[in-house]
């Protein structure tokens, strides 16, 4: 008798239909050197159904995965990775491969998330799995010093310049596509779907992390090239309403606009929102105002944004970079505990 059969009530598979896609791929991924979480093993038995087990909300294998992406582990070195199925004929795949090529990666400005591997999907010639490193959302860990934000802004501005020099427009250079390498910030790692735990369980030790300033430099990455394209020349204009940021003034379904200037607005507005969320970032005001000008003709190009940033940065002192910043509304007591007692809250 199996564990499934020994339960008093019939065993019902709690996995959603979208998860069964990953369950069907598990043996193939294993043969290609990748291991999925226990939940996606075809022979999986929920850990909370075993005698004396903790309730499901305490168990890692109760955490559902996503339909669009799923995490896993590269067996050869235990590297955490993310799988994303994409159309084999898509611009997203073509651009991701291009940006991961040795020539493109040799440019230090290129912070597009690299493609580590491509895995076929058995029985489906129209789609393929992109394998990427598991990265951390930049907003999951609070910023603590001016220099931390400056380091991030610099990398994304250089990346924008690099993309535009290669006639590539991202079309969604916005908040949720801005990531970072969290390996030194969170040495114990984090769970992909329960991101403020180390192992996904409620019994996980207290979530520990280091301030960016103490482990710098931090490498930042741009993800999700689903809407991106490489244009024939910089004069190409487009129509539509795309990306997370729908406040871009000139986006229209009727009047063509310059997609390069849309990119500038999108990342400029993401930075601007950060300067509003935190105190102590006024040094970036002139940059963000010029990157988000309502008239695209008066808005910075990527190159102008980089030049402006470089000139301003040259005047900023080390002391200015080390200055503390705080989320608006952070109480004095909390600031004191963070600054002098080593308190590291998640928010």
TrEMBL record:
PROSITE patterns: PROTEIN_KINASE_TYR (PS00109). GO terms for molecular function: protein kinase activity. It comes from the Eukaryota. This is Uncharacterized protein. It comes from Hebeloma cylindrosporum. The lineage of its organism: Eukaryota, Fungi, Dikarya, Basidiomycota, Agaricomycotina.
């Amino acid at each position: 008798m199996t564990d499934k059969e020994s339960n008093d009530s019939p065993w019902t598979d709690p996995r959603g239909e979208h998860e069964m896609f990953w369950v069907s791929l598990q043996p193939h991924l294993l043969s290609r050197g990748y291991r999925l979480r226990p939940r996606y093993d075809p022979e999986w038995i929920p850990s909370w159904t075993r005698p004396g087990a903790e309730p499901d909300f305490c168990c890692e294998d109760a955490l559902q995965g996503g339909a669009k992406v799923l995490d896993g582990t590269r067996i050869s070195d235990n590297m955490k990775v993310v799988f994303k199925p994409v159309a084999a004929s898509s611009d997203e795949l073509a651009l991701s491969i291009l940006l991961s090529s040795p020539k493109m990666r040799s440019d230090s400005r290129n912070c597009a998330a690299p493609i580590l591997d491509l895995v076929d999907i058995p029985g489906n010639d129209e789609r393929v799995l992109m394998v990427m490193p598991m990265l951390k959302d930049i907003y999951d860990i609070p910023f603590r010093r001016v220099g931390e934000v400056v380091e991030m802004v610099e990398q994304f501005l250089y990346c924008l310049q690099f993309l535009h020099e290669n006639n590539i427009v991202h079309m969604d250079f916005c908040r949720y596509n801005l990531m970072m390498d969290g390996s030194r910030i969170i040495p114990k790692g984090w769970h992909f779907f329960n991101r403020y735990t180390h192992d996904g369980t409620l019994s996980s030790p207290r979530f520990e992390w280091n301030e960016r300033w103490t482990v710098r430099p931090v490498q930042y990455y741009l993800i999700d090239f689903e809407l991106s394209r490489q244009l024939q020349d910089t004069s190409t204009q487009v129509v539509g309403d795309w990306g997370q940021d729908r406040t871009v003034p000139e986006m229209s379904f009727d009047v063509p606009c310059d997609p390069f200037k849309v990119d500038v607005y999108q990342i400029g507005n993401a930075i601007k929102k950060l300067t509003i969320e935190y105190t102590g970032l006024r040094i970036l005001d002139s940059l963000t105002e010029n990157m988000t000008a309502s008239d695209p003709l008066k808005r910075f190009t990527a190159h102008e944004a980089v030049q402006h940033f470089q000139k301003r940065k040259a005047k900023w002192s080390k002391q200015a970079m080390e200055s503390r910043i705080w989320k608006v509304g952070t109480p004095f007591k909390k600031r004191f505990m963070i600054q002098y007692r080593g308190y590291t809250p998640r928010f």
